[in-house]
Write a structure and sequence with these properties.
about 240 residues; Translation Initiation Factor IF3; alpha+beta; four-stranded antiparallel β-sheet; about 40% strand; Alpha-Beta Plaits
């Protein structure tokens, strides 16, 4: 107590005579705070399906191999138009051309790789809003010359809207937690001091839909597919003041 009084007298002496110590010059008391992490998740049905359909073709020359793949790719595009797929929902995802080889047994019994023409591939990405027709599209594509289906995925055309909604729900959860803590502590919850989304150390909000990689076989029935739901999650770190 004596030490504190001595320090105060010393400070007044340094300020000089006639100097007034105002309230705003004094160190402010630290404001009480409550920090929480709000979390929310939602599951919604996807509104489109995407599939990559391709063809692998072989030929004695590079041109022959590439022409074979191109012919099948044009058939896939024509089929997509028949299914009323918009041009914006079509895209070439890969075109490859490379020498092909095959293993041949040598007179001494060993094997060696020998040139065997060329191998080309052309893969088209198709996005289809009418997911119920996706299996039929895949089967028809195989009938038209395609021999590869690399993957099937489901998604949302406006994922930002889903993420925004789940962030709002996470913030509401944060406020609810803070209100319960304030009530339990017998204090009044005040204004929001800070908001961070995603919460520190948490990954950004993501929309998850399980893709279904597959290689389809030629057959007479549509490929069975199940879209499932898309899960969106968000974390929000929020700090609230304790009202005085």
């Amino acid at each position: 107590m004596r030490r504190s009084r001595t320090a105060l007298l010393l400070a007044l002496a340094l300020l000089g005579p006639g100097t007034e110590v105002r309230a705003e010059d004094r160190p402010a008391a630290t404001e009480g705070q409550i920090s929480v992490v709000g979390r929310a998740r939602s599951e919604v049905a996807p509104d489109f399906a995407s599939v990559e359909i391709g063809v692998e073709s072989r030929g004695a020359t590079p041109a022959a191999a590439l022409d074979g793949a191109s012919t099948a790719a044009r058939a896939i595009l024509a089929l997509a138009a028949e299914f009323k797929v918009a041009e914006a929902d079509l895209g070439t995802s890969a075109v490859t051309l490379q020498p092909a080889t095959r293993s041949m047994r040598q007179p001494d019994g060993s094997f060696a790789e020998k040139p065997d023409g060329y191998r080309a591939s052309n893969t088209v990405r198709v996005r289809l809003a009418d997911m119920g027709r996706l299996g039929d599209l895949m089967r028809r594509a195989l009938d038209g010359g395609a021999n590869r289906i690399d993957s099937v995925g489901f998604g949302l055309r406006d994922p930002d809207a889903a993420e925004s909604a789940v962030r709002s729900a996470a913030m509401k959860d944060a406020r609810l937690q803070a209100e319960r803590l304030a009530e339990a502590a017998g204090v009044t919850l005040g204004r929001v001091v800070s908001i961070q989304s995603p919460a520190t150390g948490a990954p950004p909000p993501m929309a998850f839909a399980a893709p279904a990689p597959m290689r389809a076989k030629r057959g007479g029935a549509p490929v069975p597919l199940v879209a499932g739901t898309i899960e969106t999650a968000a974390d929000v770190s929020a700090t609230f003041a304790i009202a005085r």
